[in-house]
Amino acid sequence: MDKEPNVKVGIMTEPVVEFVLDGTYEIGGKEITGRHSACCNDGKVVLDGTPYNEVELVPTDLANCSFELVGVTIGVNFHWERKENQRFKGALKLLCQQSAVTAINVLPVEDYLQSVISSEMSATSSLELLKAHAVISRSWLLAQIYKEKSDDATDEVADECADSCDEVIKWYDREDHLDFDVCADDHCQRYQGITRETTDAVRDAVDATRGQVLMYDGRLCDARFSKCCGGVYEEFENCWEPVHHPYLEACRDGENEADFPDLTKEEAAADWIMSSPRAFCNTNDKDVLRQVLNNYDQETADFYRWRVEYSQEELSALVARRSGIDFGRILDLRPVARGTSGRLYKLKIVGEKRTLTIGKELEIRRTLSPSHLYSSAFIVERHDIGADGYPGKFVLRGAGWGHGVGLCQIGAAVMGEKGYSYKQILQHYFKGAVITKLYETK
User: Which CB contacts under 8 angstroms, 24+ apart, belong to 45-52?
Assistant: First the structure.
């Protein structure tokens, strides 16, 4: 590849999409601007009363035109979920999916990255952290785009998900998207157009690393990241499809990378989670956290070690609602299998009406929270045991925020503050990966 590609980003899907064009856009040889709305009718996109198979509004001046989408949902199903208006550069594509309109932003990869870096973190982060994040975000994006075009692209993920009488194992990845490359929310990478302020530091970080990606054994790295690993990294196969990536292996998030117990063992995991071991990501430095976390992320203060409590009534109702299965009263939540960071990827729910093992980590987090648990690295305490053996209360004590695979954003922020270069940060989180320049020109 010697030329910068474009990326198609799915922004929102609603029965009616309202938007404002700031500048002149072209559609089918016509020029339009101003406020518009689109809906679906008989499988076609209806824009200002005219039906189209699909709509693509292309700016006449890429540098100076932008469009605003009204009521975009961010943080879908997470505890910070909310709606906001968002502004974007590039083209706007509208598709009809069943009875709703999907709005897609089409733009160059490097422009996309400037927004991702400012959306995933604060645009005031240290330059070395911003550079590191630019490289991994670019690597992940291009790996996803070109995965579909390679000989390795298969449908095995769906085939290998177990859904039997006693076990339901699911994982969620960007393969869920058919009409665009990536979505704009945490399911892929946060992308909020030019809504978040982009600083000179972000532009410098993207420009300084232009075209740079992580590669291993001649292939693009599937470079993952999460907010806080909790002290040790998780391995890829414990969160997604059963494929081992040598550059995504367990290490301690600290200077002595090999100094950690075997957290796949229940006793070691419990001791680790109940303690507060030293790690780059074990910090309460508000100046560092402000660099990494946007305002709504700063609503989460207990990301390294956390606690959630449910009454029997709350938990049984929650699990029934989130899983769609009536377990009756919950007798126990039993660990079945843990990954290298102590994260559960199999958990057995024992109820008076049904017993079921669920996984992987995101399915566990979705089932045991009205939004998502911070992570699946937790132990379960049963309290107020009745004469029939059923607890009156459950306490979950956990570690970390997110899946814990790849770069730990808070740990990397601390490394940046300590003077590590972006290359050293990347080498810490992606063992054996090589930084390679994939393209130069636009």
Answer: 45/94, 45/95, 45/96, 45/101, 47/94, 52/94
Q: For residue 12, give the nearest of 85, 61, 78 by alpha carbon.
A: 85
Q: What tokens appear for 223 in the block?
A: 């470079």
* DSSP code string of 185-197: STTS----TTSSP
* DSSP 8-class letter at 122: -
- Residue 205: strand, helix, or coil: helix
Q: Distance between CA atoms of 47 and 70, rounded to whole angstroms?
A: 15
The answer to whether 50 touches 75, Cβ cutoff 8 Å, is: no
pLDDT digits (tens, 9 = 90+) for 404-437: 999 999 999 999 999 999 999 999 999 999 999 9
Position 61: which residue type? D
The residues near 171 (Cβ < 8 Å, ≥ 6 apart) are 157, 161, 239, 240, 241, 360, 362, 363
**Could you tell me the pTM of the whole model?**
0.86
Q: Tell how strand 91-97 and strand 55-59 pair up.
A: antiparallel
Residues 42-66 have pLDDT tens digits of 999 999 999 999 999 999 999 999 9
- Residue 319 one-letter amino acid: V
* Beta-carbon contacts of residue 392 (< 8 Å; ≥ 6 apart): 311, 312, 383, 384, 385, 386
Angle at which helices 127-147 and 200-208 cross, to 10°: 60
Other beta carbons less than 10 A from residue 34's beta carbon:
10
Q: How far is CA 208 from the centre of its chain?
A: 25
List the structure tokens of 348.
Answer: 């057995």
Instruction: Decide if 381 contacts 370 (C-beta within 8 A).
Output: no
pLDDT classification of 191: cutoffs 50, 70, 90: confident
| Full DSSP string of 73-101 | EESTTSTT-EEEEEEE-SEEEEEEETTEE
Helix, strand, coil proportions of the chain in percent (round to 5)?
25, 35, 40
Q: Give the CA count within 13 Å in the CB-facing half-sphere of 95.
A: 15
Distance CA(108)–CA(5), nearest Å, equals 6
Q: Is 201 helix (H, G, I), strand (E, B) or coil?
A: helix
Half-sphere exposure of 429 (CA within 13 A, CB side): 37
Encode pLDDT of 194-244 as tens digits. Answer: 876 677 888 899 999 999 999 999 999 999 999 999 999 999 999 999 999
> 98 falls in which pLDDT band (50, 70, 90)?
confident
Report pLDDT digits (tens) over 381-406.
Answer: 999 999 999 999 999 999 999 999 99
| Distance of alpha carbon 312 from alpha carbon 316, whole angstroms | 6
Amino acid at 426: L
